[in-house]
């Protein structure tokens, strides 16, 4: 496009500072046989949510938020320069909701099988996508321990609503894909779960840290202990970040908001800390509904979650 | 409605997990001679506000927010199962604002007189409703010490605007319904009050804790000391929770928002702590305007305030 | 609740003028064996929409809008006093979208079978609900001619997305539930349909009036001719009102808005006119998404659509 | 402020085209004994509204909207250059709603008594202000015929809610300030009034034109006939413009919106026409709530209503 | 991307009906030496606006709106299948506003010089972009008659604010790029212009049709007469569509909205009519600010304006 | 205006408590030769922003927010009573953006030269205004050390975008107006700056404290050390408060929001602390865009920033 002065492709005529690399510029298109340190896949499924949710729009919103930030982590003096392969999004069917879980499973199986990247970022969608993702991950890449950041257990029974965003970890446990001891839930809050599901978690040997415990012990201390433990009994560690682990003041764009949650600085520090462990290999970010968010604040936090993960890996 | 498949009453065709009890399900209709541990009454008056306020819509919004949360307090392993009698709302006249204070007083006198419940929840409305509520409470149930969470003294003169949301505690003091020593104000902030009203508070012997003091000493330490003191000289303790005690980031739906306030976790812990004292018998929640709130965040905090109170009583 | 002064049930403490009957007051609860002139059923399904839609919230929003209007049609000097049986809403499953069409069909079959009312109002939901409604209506009550107000044909193929809001009339035609000659589409606009679906409509013998034709001939002239024709070859006439037949300025709360549509006065006059024909027995109102509406404008028009229908019947 | 380069008073550093006069620039401050062709007074009372209303903010919003428009009416080739004395706003008490009607009456009595201007513009506020305005107008300036543009009769009984925005014309009739024959209501809609109030209007001899009649006969034909009639039996004609006479698409910022109303071009042409009659001497504009308006659209129409009135007078 | 099941490029995993062509699918990327019937260029400049304007976001919003509509004009039975070359956007400098006019002129000169397309669509930006566009058009392609749809003359003096959105046609006239007789202004409204600029238009021989005239004569009659006249004395006709020619109810997203404007159906019919004349060769669409629009309504109208133009050409 | 009962100037008919002084009441108009302790000047320039910004509206929004707060700092028992001279706003040209920097420089040079006040408050506008302000300040009043609260370095190169909000401190350094050792940047965050600009800061000897450091050491400890250091080598200290130093939860109305920032209580305490040093003589507040703010939260914090500064001076 060199012949015409000042012309840029549609939507690309935006200010460029020659010395600044936007985090979004790290994204590159996927090609067969290409490999890289990081890969990202969009999982735009939210019709499986119990409550009304536009989380299917989150993969786009989070990618867009990466345009707002640079690649430089001044606090540790490191510039992130590794490319992130953007595989794209998995296509969802308008009415076959249950089949969409199969589609997610099939697409992610194929993607993980490529072994194209060392670190996998999955952008939901609602939390139901984690079932397909973790199942495919385990089958293709080996056993997996899970650190779930969440206000909720997500261990509901399947009879009442099928595979919703309230059931992913129940399904993984019931189908024997993971063992209860391989699941750590951090940030569980009062009045966000039924007693029976707490009991179920206990019966299954799930490790649960409430927000009160996080405040008392500190997130990084919890992470240190649990990651060490999980790393000994599983091949990989998978972080599942339900953004509603944050207080509503810090993540106003989640469907199930409430007070008493984590602040975003704590979460970001925790992700930075966790990613420094070599076993940590994948992370999903779920439950952001951009249609109800305020100034994309929650997607902005999500983009920081990605960057802190990469900062952690760059710090190793 | 058993003959017709899938039919539910209008508005009730919503997802139900068989193991989950929503906090709102604890509400039951009032009937003469019925009694329970908790009772709730809506006081939808806000035309008495100095600034434009839709706080009259708050009783509905807070009840609705109870639908978003469960009855299980995992941090202490307790399920809340005591019913809450919902007395309903007191009817307000469109133009007779001053008469509405009388209506509140009359209705609440009748309600308190039933002695139907052990713990009274009053949902404002603006803060002017506390005058009627506390006066009726004292006349029907005995003397009362007050813990007021608020950025403001609410001790304005009556001459300039009549019985507004700026005057409830002035009226109570001037009419001898309470004594200054029986009033504790917590969370008072800079630049939210006139010097003369601070001086008035001092002259009356009101105990005042500013936000700086709350940050320095801690809310629970303050509550412990003051509840013990009040319990000795009054029959009951009444919590008056003006939600603008919270910072604007945590309670965006109050008419008089500002920075420098309390965070919601601190408030919730404080209510949990206070409610464990047997003298604490009533609580009003005021100054939430759902028409300017963001995603009902402030009503959501209010519903948690109720739940933390009940958690406190359940912990006794 | 006579013992306590000023007390009203929660949410009912609202101003009441003794001489004014709100349209919403005409709604009464359904009971087995009860019968009336009108009946209303909520069909809260919108996960079947191609685009993101909160049309499942519309039954509640439309009922609520009836509270804003009275029962008096001054232009014809008639007060609407016949009760409307509110059957309630049909319960939808969170993830079994296709099964929800069966649920709608089953519930409506049972309801129509009661023959409890003379005129049936169905509140969607997205337009996919019309398939279940019309199929059940025909099976229970006899053959049916359809007047569809819509910017779109809704004759898409089923292969690409299953039973979405783009397919209800295709399904009815393909399954032989209706014949093409029994379907009249009014308000079809440029650039809102594919050529192939226009061709399909022509092949099936569907009668199509574009907005240009509506402007040229007038809506009532079209209705007079088509209702007379349909009344001769079918037992009943069913109005299917997709609110996106209106211009975006008049119905901002539909998912698929655009310019060049009908104004609301024309539609309201048309409904009034059509309902005066004795064959007209049912009407659905679909494709209102209250979550994106402006001041519930679109639900307000919907409530007027109901009232104009009743005014038509009252004028007979 | 000539010594400091580029300095302007706070809020006045806005672009000024040397050849353009903004309509707002016609406003001048009132001083005792000053006189002019036009005068404007703000009546910021809306706590008297039946429904929640911020109409008290309308005087400011309408004045501000005058800044968006120029003083030149190209269609008749006339520049409006007569000044408009801005008397200011009458101060309302926060809780003494009924006393505020007296305040309006007293303030307006004093203002009308000055006879400072030939044409009076009153900016509400809700419609209850018209009672005080018309009563004071008649007592100070002589008998008055009223053209009321409104979807509603505003003839409710006083017992149920006191002097609300539903009662101004009832009060005027009952207190004998006006006679039913002197009141013309234009734009009355179906389902916006109770039958009993229609009957009351008929009994009192009020002249009522529904929207159907306006569409059939035309607004200007109605105005011509009624203004001529009123001019013969009263000293002055007073226009009372409730903006909800407009369809919700054209006046989204009124509390009581609905479909089927007038379009704004028709209203503006009608005001232009009416103002050309020498008997027309005053106009109030009421029922705009800027807090729920969209881009101040409704206040923008109001500013045009003022300008069309002045254009009418300039055309005489 | 055939190896991985269900994978689509980021943002492209959206529902596709095999028989439907979205209007946006007609857009193709520009390549040197490529030619087509239509071309589109984005001109994202709005810092030149007198009032605060985000019109620079409109090119993206209008392209996106093309995704909401199909390519089939049922009213004339024609499917639009000609491709539209999307040249992209011209890059604007953050602070060199006046230089940006030069950039627009240089880029458009290069683009017009390619003679790559028969019909040019220019997407503003504010109206100041028309100066550069028309100047470059004339220099590269021949003399030009202009049909300007606008509530405003845009003939302000240059001294007070430089080359703003108030001055494009003044600049064109003063620099002799066009002659007054070659400029037709349609839709001018009262109170939107200063008298001096009306006078200037008259002195320059500009033809002006106010909205009153449009309503009286009809838009198509005006267009027929003026296009015939212009076609005789210029080589080409250029349509300049300032969306604020529409009433605020139909185009809520323009910076300078007001009542009394054109409805969108009239404008769309006019564009369809005008485009059928062979002299009409270019069209700009300006003054849409997506940041203040409601549900992209105004960009939706703009996308229809493009489609109606193409429908006109397809009807020739 | 004593003759007419209840009349107040337009917009001034608001509730007044006789004992309460609003902070806004401290503002007084500027007159030549007048002097006071504080002065305030509005700098409404934001067309110089890299991203779309309405920061030009902030001076008005911040002044208005002062109306929400009183003059009494209860925590230190001091009433602020010193007047603040409101010089007004500097007028900006619509299209001559670069010239506007000169206008700011000229206007502020004249204002500083008056030496009318002891403490200068500058209300931006975007951060580009600080260049003109600091340059003029130094030339008129002496050398200056700067404490910049900001998430960003604002040391971008000038070639790519001219004098934007990304360059003010680069310009000051490059033109030798300040030395790198005189600049302290507090609150710099990860992913908000390019590495090259961090390096530039280091090369120039700028002192940088990241948010991690602020959390570790504490803001007041940093301020104490740096103010002491700067006070030794410069005549005055100038605080430059970019509100995006705050976390997005506390300052949602800044153009460049993100997580991980400072909370507002920390900032307010820091300003109070800093202002107690006698060298601190000026403060600008920039980067608030009221058009995207939520309930003016960010302008409310800004008004508190002013009040805390004054509280600091009153505590000396
Ligand atoms: Ca979850
Ligand atoms: Ca969750
Ligand atoms: Ca209070
Ligand atoms: Ca308060
Ligand atoms: Ca449809
Ligand atoms: Ca449709
Ligand atoms: Ca009225
Ligand atoms: Ca009315
Ligand atoms: Ca223009
Ligand atoms: Ca224009
Ligand atoms: Ca900055
Ligand atoms: Ca910054």
TrEMBL record, chains A, B, C, D, E, F:
Coiled coil: none
GO MF annotations, alphabetized: agmatinase activity; formimidoylglutamase activity; metal ion binding
Signal peptide (UniProt feature, chain positions): none
Binding site for Mn(2+): 127, 150, 152, 154, 242, 244
Enzyme Commission number, as recorded: 3.5.3.8
Gene Ontology terms describing biological process: L-histidine catabolic process to glutamate and formamide; putrescine biosynthetic process from arginine, via agmatine
InterPro entries, per the entry: HutG, Ureohydrolase, Ureohydrolase_dom_sf, Ureohydrolase_Mn_BS
Cofactor(s), names only, from the UniProt record: Mn(2+)
Domain of life where this protein originates: Bacteria
Pfam family, any one: Arginase
SUPFAM superfamilies, per the entry: Arginase/deacetylase (SSF52768)
CDD domains reported in the protein's UniProt record: Agmatinase-like (cd09990)
Comment on bound cofactor: Binds 2 manganese ions per subunit.
Entry keyword set: Histidine metabolism, Hydrolase, Manganese, Metal-binding
NCBIfam families from the UniProt entry: hutG
Family: Belongs to the arginase family.
Protein name: Formimidoylglutamase
Gene this chain is encoded by: hutG
């Amino acid at each position: 496009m060199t012949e015409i002065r000042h012309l840029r492709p549609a939507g690309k005529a935006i200010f460029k500072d020659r010395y600044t690399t936007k985090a979004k510029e790290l994204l590159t298109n996927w090609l067969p046989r290409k490999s890289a340190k990081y890969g990202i896949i969009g999982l735009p499924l939210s019709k499986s949510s119990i409550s009304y949710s536009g989380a299917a729009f989150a993969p786009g919103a989070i990618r867009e938020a990466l345009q707002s930030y640079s690649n430089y982590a001044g606090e540790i003096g490191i510039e992130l320069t590794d490319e992130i392969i953007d595989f794209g999004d998995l296509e969802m069917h308008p009415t076959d909701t249950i089949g969409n879980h199969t589609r997610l499973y099939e697409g992610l199986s194929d993607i993980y099988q490529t072994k194209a990247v060392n670190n996998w970022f999955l952008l939901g969608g609602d939390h139901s996508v984690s079932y397909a993702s973790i199942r495919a991950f385990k089958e293709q890449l080996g056993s997996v321990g899970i650190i779930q950041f969440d206000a909720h257990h997500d261990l509901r029974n399947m009879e009442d609503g099928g595979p919703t965003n309230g059931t992913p970890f129940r399904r993984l446990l019931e189908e024997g894909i993971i063992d209860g001891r391989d699941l750590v839930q951090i940030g569980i809050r009062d009045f966000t779960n039924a007693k029976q599901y707490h009991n179920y978690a206990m019966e299954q040997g799930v490790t649960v840290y409430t927000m009160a415990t996080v405040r008392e012990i500190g997130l990084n201390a919890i992470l240190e202990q649990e990651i060490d433990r999980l790393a000994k009994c599983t091949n990989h560690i998978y972080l599942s970040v339900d953004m509603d682990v944050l207080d509503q003041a810090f993540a106003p764009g989640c469907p199930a908001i409430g007070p008493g949650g984590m602040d975003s600085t704590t979460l970001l520090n925790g992700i930075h800390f966790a990613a420094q462990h070599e076993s940590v290999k994948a992370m999903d970010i779920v439950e952001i509904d951009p249609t109800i968010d305020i100034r994309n604040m929650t997607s902005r936090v999500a983009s920081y979650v990605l960057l802190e993960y990469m900062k952690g890996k760059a710090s190793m």
